[in-house]
Every structure is written in C-alpha cells, then in structure tokens.
Amino acid sequence: MLALRLLATVWSPTTHGVPINDLNVKLLSRFHTMLYRLTNGRIGRRLVDNDMLLLTTKGHKTGNEHTVPLLYLRDGGRLVVIASYGGRPSHPQWYRNLLADPIASVQILGDTFPVRATTMTAAERSDWWQKVVDAYADYAEYQSHTEREIPLVWLDR
After folding, report:
1. Structural domains counted in the chain
2. Which of 5-9, 47-51, 59-63 is predicted most confidently?
3. What is the pLDDT of residues 93-143, one digit of tens each?
C-alpha cells in the first residue's frame, strides 16, 4: 500500500512530490504495470480513487508491445481512456500507437481481452469531458497546460 500511496503522490504534476518528467513517468508506469501484472490487479487496480487498466499497444515504429496503466471509465460495455500525457504538448506514445494500429489488448484485474480503439468525435468528447473531469479533476488542469485537445478514446471488445 505504501507503493500505491507513493504513486498517487507523485503521479500528478499538481503535487509537491517527485518532479514529473518523461523519465519519471516512464519509471512509475513500469513499476505500476509490474505490480498490476504480478497481482492480477489486486495492487494497482485503483489510483486516486479511480479504476485502472493495463493497455498494451504495438509500437508504430518498432512493432514491439508497450504496456501502460491508464485510468478508465465505463459506458456500458465500452471503456473510455484519456490521452492526457499530463498536459504535455504532444500526445502520449500509446495514443500515437493506436492511431497507427487501433487493435490493442486490455487487462482489467485478471481478465485480458482484445480491443479496438476509436478516438471520440468532437460531439462525443463534448458530452464526455465533464464526466472525465468529475472522475479526476486534474484533467481540467492538464487541458489548460496544452494547446492540443486531449483525446478521449473508446476501447471496444
């Protein structure tokens, strides 16, 4: 549990924990992924009061698999993930990978299954943005730090 508290403390750039830069994000992501996989989500399934999944994409340059932990929301049988990258100017690598190949896999707890990713339309995003911010308020701050519109992504089985 101490590890999860540490993750929650440093994960957000609005905290006064470890500076959030690309290296720290990568290290925290790998640590979170390792704990989640080793415990089938018993450790790492929730972070900052939200459910987490593991998303595995195929690298658009290398073809190698890459796995990241992401906060997600549900809409019936559909999943929604947020390509915020903490409000950085560019999209996260996992999102760029999905643009090149929308087929990926998701692990939720011990269940792993294939998904197809689709970026929400402008109208869908407009409908969903407040739900996303209600789930994790820092997303509003992330959006204010970047000129790009943070994509919201459907993951469908």
Report:
1. 1
2. 59-63
3. 999 999 999 999 999 999 999 999 999 999 999 999 999 999 999 999 999
Predicted TM-score (pTM) of this structure: 0.86
DSSP characters for the chain? -HHHHHHHHHHSTTSSSS---HHHHHHHHHHHHHHHHHTTTTTTSEETTEEEEEEEEE-TTT--EEEEEEEEEEETTEEEEE--GGG-SS--HHHHHHHH--EEEEEETTEEEEEEEEEPPHHHHHHHHHHHHHH-THHHHHHHT-SSPPPEEEEE-
pLDDT score, position 15:
47
Which domain, by its residues, includes 130?
2-156
What CATH number is attached to the domain comprising 59? 2.30.110.10
